[in-house]
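re: ur question from earlier - yeah i can do the single chain one, its not a big deal. heres the input i used so u can compare w yours
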Amino acid sequence: MRRLTTSFLDSAFGHGADGRPLFMPFGLIGGQYAIPDMATAQRLRRGVARLLPLALLPIFCLLALFLPPVRNAYALSLLGAMAASFALFSLTFFLWVRHATRGLHRVDRARHGMPALLDPDEALARRLLDRVRPPRTRSAEETLGALAGFACQMLLRHRAEQEGTAAPLIEVATHDGRLRYFGDALNGLLAEYPGSLWAGVGDGKPALLLGPIFREMTDACVGDSRDYADMIGLLQRHWSATALILRGQGVDIERWPDLFVRALRELVQESGDTSLRPALLFMRAAIAMSKMDPAEILVPDQPVGDPLRRSRPTSRTAP
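and the output i got, formated as tokens:
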């Protein structure tokens, strides 16, 4: 039943040629509307979900006709009920779409190209999400965030490796000999650049909201926080397998942070939580784990030059 519900919901959504999410209530033959933010996407999905029982009525009538005793006794009644329920669903759906799309920008198909009904990243994002659901982890939001934040650091190392330069990271040695990494480029991928993690999950809210979290995690990463140690454990348990899955699917590391963002969006849509709580949990773990020393995270053996191994930082700071 869950798969049926998900398929019904997904049939009304797609992505344009430019990657923008679209609401397509009548598929490729009807109007297509740009979805401006996550709250709007959740509102539309809830509306479509409420209409699912009406959509199932004509299907149930049709299935009943395949039962000989029922067909022989109630064939005409079932045909009439099927036609009436289909008409009721069609009228209700049409009126709801008119109401739900008020204020949404209608996309010009001639200018923006043919939309894609299927998102190529959807199945992979859901696979990542299913791997970190409780009871496998204490929090799916936190685990996805930890993976995303560490992926941001790995992405910077990958780019530096490709260019033959030092990674734009500041290495800080703690009093007990551990290494942590900081830098403007890392903060940009986390929260400041247009394509940052926060841009993907923050629903347009200012990055200033993350100031207290940055300060908290900066202190925690060089201290003895039990919570920080638990997040390290999450990352150590899930990074290796996740990296193998993404590499096995041929996913370039440039896309890894975005896939974790997409997985969080899937989780938020499922839960219907329109608050910032999931995004803040995600970002707290992302900021924390973005500073980790790759040598502390168990990763599979990689070929020479692979970005998952530690590369030299721009500078090093002793305690």
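The first strand starts at residue 13 and ends at 15. not sure if urs matches, ping me
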